[in-house]
Structures are given as C-alpha cells and as structure tokens.
Design a protein that fits this description.
7-stranded parallel sheet; alpha/beta; Rossmann fold; single chain; 7 strands
Amino acid sequence: MQSKRIVVVTGAAGGIGAAIVKRFLSNEDTVIAIDNRADALKVLQESHQASASQLIAIDGDVSREQECRRFATLIESKVGRVDVLVNCSGYYPIVPFEEMSLADWQQVIGINLTGPFLMVRSLLPLIKGRGWGRIVNVGSASVFEGVAGQVHYVAAKGGIVGFSRSLAMELGSHGITVNVVAPGLTKTEPVRRQMPAEMIESQREVRAIKRDEQAEDLAGPVFFLASPDAAFMSGQILVVDGGKVKN
C-alpha cells in the first residue's frame, strides 16, 4: 500500500472526517486537516499527539473562495504538493421546503457543493503534474430516494455526483481519479443532536446489516478509493449504507 502521501481532508474535525484523518495517519501519510472550527481542530490534534509531525491543521471556511486560495498557498508553502483530496465538509439541517429561505438554500449548497468545487479548483495545480492523484468526494445515499426536510442538502449531494463524474472525464488524462463515497445516515455527534431519534432508529431495519452506521465505516472505503488498488475506478459512486440502497 502506498504511504507517505500528502492528504487533504476537509470537514476533518467532524465525526466522519476525524475517522478518515485517523485512517490516513495510520498509513504514515501526512494529513492537512481543514475545518471551520478551530476548537474542534485542537481536539483532533490532541488526539493524535503521537502523529503530531504528520498532522497539519488549518481552520477556515471551504465555501469562501479567498479561504480556499489561502489553503492552497499554505499547503504549497508547507508541503509543496497534494496527492489526495477528500472533500468531507458537510452541513445537513432539517428545514421543511415551504419554510426554506434562499439564505438557507445558499448556505447548504455553498458548503456541500460549492465547497468541493472551490477546493478542487484551488488545489488542482498542486495535484497535477505527476501522473497520479486522487479526489474523493463524500456524497450521500439520500440522492437515491430523497429525504423530506432536506431538499437543499439532497440537491447539493446530487450535484456532487454530476460534478464528480464530469470532473473524472476531464482529469483522467492526468492520472487523477475522482470518485464519490455515499454514506447512509451515520450516527455522528451532530446527527445525534439534530436528527429525531426515530429517524436514526428506523434506518437499522431497512438495512441488510441491521445496526447503526458509524463514522469508521466510511474511513476504509475512502482509503480504498485513494489507493493504488482503485487505479481503474473513476466517476463512480461507492454506496456505504449497510445494504439499504441497491443502485
């Protein structure tokens, strides 16, 4: 397995993001962890003190163009290149459609769809040129059936699929693959706080694997798509939801 890569993970201090960071650090990769919560990034760093030299934390907002340009400048100055980009930043509030304002819509689209666009656009010069690269976008299995109260979120994640498939066609000649990992409802701390308990519980019964999905369930699939083993996969959706969706 290839190691000692430069890996950028957005949403790195969240439940799924933190599990992904841990998986790459265990492979002796250098991880640039980006999140808009400086306090959560500090906790992430404290939890990986043994890998302190491999973990670089940068706080900022992926939905802002100037911030993404700043990330690129910092990353170039610190490590000089990017081998793997994992777009994991996410925001998924529940808002009934008839109560949804334009500001609500734009905020969710900004973080979940515009953010990955800005990150790829800013970091691509650091990825191209070596004939190898991996971009993994975290989508959502909700795009296959829809979710009431999350029209903006599901629309953004549907956009991630089209974005990734088209980007894969543009970047394939550079040896860069672009794929999507689509989780089901994952029992992270924000989900516990924001989602009704009955919604979380109902997911167990409709899965082939009848348990809650955990953040760690996503780390392996993301790591696989970032590896040499996935060299001939691009523009694909890897659904990781315990066997609920059969796509």
